[in-house]
Predict the 3D structure of the following.
Amino acid sequence: MSTNTYRKALESAMHEAMNYHGNTVIIGQGVTDFKGLFGTTSGLAEKFPNRLIETPLAEDSIAGICIGMALNGMYPINTHIRADFGLLIFNQLINLAAKYKYMFGGLFEIPMMMRMIIGRSWGQGAQHSQSLQSLIAHIPGLVVVMPASPQSIKESYSYAIEKYRGPVVFLEHRLMYELSFEDNQTKMENPLFGSKLERLGSDITVVATSVMVIEVKRAAEYLARNGISVEIIDLHSISHPDKDMIIESVEKTGRLLVADTSWAQFGVASEINRIINEHDPSILKSPSRSLGMQPAPCPTAKTLEDLYYPDVYDIVVELISIVGKSHTDYNNVPNKESMTDYYKHFKGPF
Amino acid sequence: MKDTQELLFEALRIRLVEEKIIDLYPSDQIQSPVHLSIGQEAVAVGICANLAVTDWVFINYRGHAFYLAKGGPLPQFFAELMGRVGGLSKGKAGSMHLAAPAQGVIGASAVVASTISHAVGAALASKIKGEKNRIFIANFGDGAMEQGVFFESLNFASLYKLPVLFLCEDNGLAVHTHLKDRQSFNIQQLVNSFGIKFQQILEGYDPTIVMNESKAVIDFVKKNQTPAFLRVKTMRYKEHVGPGEDLHVGYRSEIEMDNWKLKDPLISNQALDEMAAKIRLEIEAALSFAYNSPFPTKADLLTDVY
């Protein structure tokens, strides 16, 4: 079994797009510079000078330029080194890209990709750390995917470029970039629509997004050694999750925790609970719970930042509590630890 | 080049189509906000006379004139306004989102200035593909020049030398607010500061003048594959949105409009009566198509979302 990093998978996806699809254009701030968007676009500008487009700091117009390119036969990949900058394209994304196919009765399609990178830890602060998945997934016409592994990147990016004819937003997570993953052979039929059953279990279902999938897996391994069996669903497609998979899992376990990278209110947690409640709330043996960022903007101070995000300790405590026990009855509960301590590769500044 | 009679015919056709909309509006057959082009027809007709089908126009919510001048079909136009499936966008677009891709009308947005960058992007794609003889028209009103994306688009188009004509239909009003109360900059200086050629036409009432004077700048963009800016002065005769007049409210100059109308070749021109009769027949036939087109049903509600 081979291993790969999240960053390497992104690099491969970008190289394959450029090598094999002559209409692909990568456009965004920094895509041609020496850092190449954390190395994911490095070397491409030399090979494809006309199709790697460095931009002024003008996100609004660049998003519109992407729509114009898509209308004229290109496949634009627009990058945002922090998802927060993506807020500047919401007019084009929501008022135009999301609506062009429907509003014009199918006359136009806008095939394009938005890559937005979520920052976390090492003092990213209030405007370099936001997880905007629920804002974007709220809008009909947009597909929102949060890949949680190199395999997810490999299959969903190529599918978006080769087979899908609409706008797709990929929210990548900075903390995962240098993590190595073992190749997972499970393939999705349509990797833009659906979720992944990441771990089988019988006591509780955890629906997790992005880097939280990894955190929940760490918690699940500890709990497995202590007699609690956790089933993990990697939500993957935020806009189009596999509802049947979620319902089936909760029917089996009777318990639900949603672990999201963003705020719980009006978010992924709300949506997963809607799915269960509109199906049959009686399948829950105990009230569902959610874990996400604290309901405040992200603080920069490390002591506050460590409290702001849920970590493996919080997840373990929550899961033990949901099955009706107390974590004080368990030995060697993981310590509360800073995300930067665990993801040692990520020492900042960016 | 088209002759004056052809151009007047096209301009009159747009005016009579819109006057028909005014007649029909109280009947509620058209349940869509209409931003009428009456008074501004000559701009669309004069510009489009210089364009090929492969030249694209990116328009806005006041888009009837450009849709028709660029060749958008009339029966489907009425069906679209009436919310019927016979419209090119199957009734989902209405008056504010007209498009006719086969004729190079690439969609209208109701958010001011939001298609300007689309023209720039389509021109960038054209450049990447190595095309040499196309032009992309970003059509907007004077209000759009206050949006940030306008400045961003000028910058990008100049930086990458793209075949875009920034075409400002300057009617001097953004809804009810005059240009002098909205803009602190001089548009010619602004455009020139981006290294973009600036031209203006003050006789926006006359389609022949607009055609003749815009030809050079359109040729310039096509030949040099570089952007230019064209301001055409015009006059919106009707209220911002809706079928009515709004002179009586008092925020506009009656004298200014009267002087403009004296020069309007579509007014009090008996030579056009014969044309008008012919156009009216076409309008009746188009309306008949629209009335016979069914309304969309529940089966259409969720199509074309993804």
In short: The domain at 3-182 of chain A is CATH 3.40.50.970 (Rossmann fold). DSSP finds 14 helices and 13 strands in chain A. Chain A touches chain B through 40 residues (CB under 8 Å). Chain A has a mean pLDDT of 95.
